């Protein structure tokens, strides 16, 4: 019967993790690329095929050439148009958007439309190194959606590796002090900015932050956030905890 390569004649063959290919198979692949032919098991002759090869690997093939585990001639045959896709940890600015995309996708998949992923949790995703790249992120988001105990995703709902991370703050729309900042300071700043954005309208600010109005009021009291009174209204000044 036809094998994968013969079936792909005048088409494309994708070889995933080509760096794991054993030496004897590397020889056969090299012959396919150089001569454009294959020898089927048990056949007395060869068959001409015209295929385009697309190969991928997470291994360092040049290092493998040096230690003799990957053929140098095969490497240069494959490396006609090399494309480098950086790992997710080197694209931290993409992580929040990807996390929210997968969160929406998994909410629909598992029938949990009321789940809310608070913006204050996104820095924990950006601070993780993601050795499994995008697949790991997608699977982790699905686990959170399935296992969430309430509609408001909290820090305790995140897997332990994320909880242990120092939250990455670079993507947040605020200026950060050189001395550093903690997660409660971030939460306070986000709430304060949302309130100012909507002229201290608590209902609109709560919707903007994906919070209930009751939760917003609780956190305002927790951080001592109150609207500053205009001195012209009372003829004097009143202190506020928003400083």
Main attributes?
243 residues; mainly alpha; two-stranded antiparallel ribbon; 7% strand
- Name the strands of the widest sheet in spatial order: 1-4
Shape: elongated
Compute the CA-based radius of gyration: 28 Å
* Helical/strand content category: mainly alpha
Residues in helix, %: 40-55%
Unreliable stretches, pLDDT < 50, 5 or more residues? 230-243
Query: What is the tally of beta strands?
Result: 6
How would you sum up this structure, described in words?
Strands 1-4 form a two-stranded parallel sheet. The protein has a two-stranded antiparallel sheet with strand order 2-3. A two-stranded parallel sheet has the order 5-6. Helix 2 packs across helix 4, helix 9 packs across helix 10 and helix 10 packs across helix 11. The chain has 243 residues and is mostly helical. It is built from twelve helices and six strands.
Outline of this structure?
The chain is mainly alpha-helical and 243 residues long. It contains 12 helices and 6 strands.
List the helices and strands and how they pair.
Layout lengths: L3 H4 L3 E5 L7 H13 L1 E2 L8 E2 L2 E5 L5 H6 L5 H7 L16 H15 L6 E2 L4 H5 L6 H15 L4 E2 L6 H4 L19 H15 L4 H7 L4 H11 L7 H4 L9
Parallel strand pairs: 1-4, 5-6
Antiparallel strand pairs: 2-3
